[in-house]
Every structure is written in C-alpha cells, then in structure tokens.
Amino acid sequence: MRSRIEDVAAVAGVSIKTVSRVLNHEPNVRAETRERVMAAVTRLGYKPNLSARSLAGQRSYSLALVYNNPSRNYLMEIQNGMLEACHAHHYNLILGPVGIGRHTLPDLSALFENSRPDGVVLIPPLTDDAVVLDWLEEQEIPYSSIAPRDPEGHIGVRMDETTAVLELMAHLVAQGHRRIAHIKGPRAHGACQWRHAGYRQALRTAGIDYDPALVVNGQFSFESGITAANALLDLPEPPTAIFAANDDMAAAVYRVAGQRGLRIPRDLSVCGFDDTPIAGHIFPALTTVRQPTSSMGTIATEQLIERIRAAKGGRMVTVDHAVLVRESTQAPRRR
C-alpha cells in the first residue's frame, strides 16, 4: 500500500503542512525537523503525489526544456543534468522542441496551453532570441538561461568560452601549427561569437594573420561539419589543423579526412568543443574543451526552481572549463 503524507507526518511527529514545506524545500524549517521528516520519508518509501501537489499549490510541478538546437549530443547532456535536478526536487521534465522563425512562438504557446510547466530552461540559440524572451516576460513565466550572450539580469549558468578557446588554440600553436582553420557555429548562437573571438584573438597573440578562407560556417550539426570540412580540405593549401566549434562537427571532419585517405593526427590535427560522449568514442580520441554540459543542465534547473519559489531567487552561475589534450593533435608534418 502506498504511503501517504499523513503517514509521514505521524511518523515524524509533525503536521502535514510541515511535511509539505520540507518536501517543497521551503525556508524557515529547523534543520532537526527537516532531518526527522526526511528520515520518515525514507523509512516509509514515500513519494509525493505530483497531481495532489499541483492542485494544492496551483503548480504543475513540471519544468520544460525548450530548444531548437541541432546538436543531439549537447541536448542529451543538458537533458540528463536537468533530470537529475528535477528528480531531486520532485519535478517532472517536459521536452519542448520549437520551430525556427515564425514557428517559434506558436510552438512555445502550445507547450504552455497543453502542459502548463511552472518554468522553462532555455538553451542556445533561444537564450538570445529577443522574441522568445519578450514573450516569457509578458506572460510572467520564470525561465533560466544556459550560456546567454548577455548574462546581465538573467539567471542560469554560463562559461568563459573565449578563454577556453584561447587555451585550446595555444596548444595548437605550441605544436607548430600556423595554418589553423575554424568551423563556426550558427551566427545567432552566442557560442559561435565567443569561440570565433577566441580563435581570432589567439591568432593575433601568435602573430598569425587571419585568413578568411580558413573560416567556414557550420550549424553545430554533423551534417554541416561534412560540408565545412570538404570546403577546407579542397583549398589549394589546406589547413594542418582544424578547430571545430563543437564535437559533432569535429567528428564530421574525421569522416571527411578518412574518405580522403588522411590520417588523424598524422596528416591533420582536429579539435572540438564541449567534450560530449562522442569525443571519447571516436578514434583517435578528440582533443577538446570540456564544458560541464550535464552539470550546467543541473545548475540551470536549480536556479529556475529557486526563481519559481521566490520572485528574486536564482542567479547566474559561472562554471569552470578544462582543455583536454588527447590523441587527435600533434605537430604538423613538413610538406
């Protein structure tokens, strides 16, 4: 038989209201009382009834991940991090894919009409979509942003991506590379601008002229990486190293290089960004920047829950990065 909140209250020796406050992580509950309630929850194997909580508090106790990002690996990592936080705070997670351009607002509106989440987590490029942000503000819907271009006035999580790219590029320069190409992300994506800025700044620091022919556009998808890699390797003087703005596009460079009989890193060094699982699955393992993507999903969710509980709750959290030097880079061969 399923335990009820009344059973938890009886075992803990407190009121039903106190149990509810503990389970909803509300403030002003003594630590001793909180521990007693949680011990009773564990002992009875009690699980909150989300429907009952929703009716009592006028909440759905669900959060939505709203996205139109084409990188499946990035999306999965964010989702895993959000699930961890939702489970810890007894929330459900709803996936809210939205279309691009004129489809965005109708899809977003339909999400709230059908599922009524208490708030949303936005990932790039929606974090910087003025139409989406204005709509959420008008509807007074709490939201948390992952990697917004302008973090001022927002809650969520970010990373210093420009500095991360400077460190990654310094590694390639130290190996002797001078002809380093870059596959960019979508123009509207803040990460595209930060990572391209780091690329250009690193070239200036190393005294290497910027060559527009070595910079091609991508869409953070494997498919766009194929097109970009072919364009770069078709150049009369192809690059000795390619820095792709995410791991999916870096994996695409591997595919194109292999089709052309090029070996990585002997004939071509390759770097990515994010350290999604694909970075360790491809061979040789990819040199990349570790962005703690799953943790960022967790943090963004926690900040959103704080905002839902209090109008001024939540903040913008900055996380650390790491450059992971693996087997996909080495000194260039003499040609």
Give structural notes:
The chain has 335 residues and is of the alpha/beta class. It contains 13 helices and twelve strands. It has helices spanning 5-12, 16-23, 31-44, 50-57, 72-88, 104-115, 130-138, 161-174, 190-206, 222-233, 247-259, 278-281, 293-309, and strands at residues 62-67, 92-97, 119-122, 143-146, 156-159, 180-183, 215-216, 241-244, 269-271, 288-290, 316-319, 322-324. The strands form three sheets. The chain has a six-stranded parallel β-sheet with strand order 2-1-3-4-5-11, with helices on both faces. α10 packs across α11 (247-259). The radius of gyration is 24 Å and the shape is elongated. The relative contact order is 0.13.
State the strand order across the main sheet: 2-1-3-4-5-11
Report the uncertain regions: 50-56
How many beta strands in the DSSP annotation?
Answer: 12
Helix content: 40-55%
List the helices and strands and how they pair.
Blueprint: H1 5-12, H2 16-23, H3 31-44, H4 50-57, E1 62-67, H5 72-88, E2 92-97, H6 104-115, E3 119-122, H7 130-138, E4 143-146, E5 156-159, H8 161-174, E6 180-183, H9 190-206, E7 215-216, H10 222-233, E8 241-244, H11 247-259, E9 269-271, H12 278-281, E10 288-290, H13 293-309, E11 316-319, E12 322-324
Parallel strand pairs: 1-2, 1-3, 3-4, 4-5, 5-11, 6-7, 6-8, 8-9
Antiparallel strand pairs: 10-12
Helix pairs in contact: 1-2, 1-3, 5-13, 8-9, 10-11
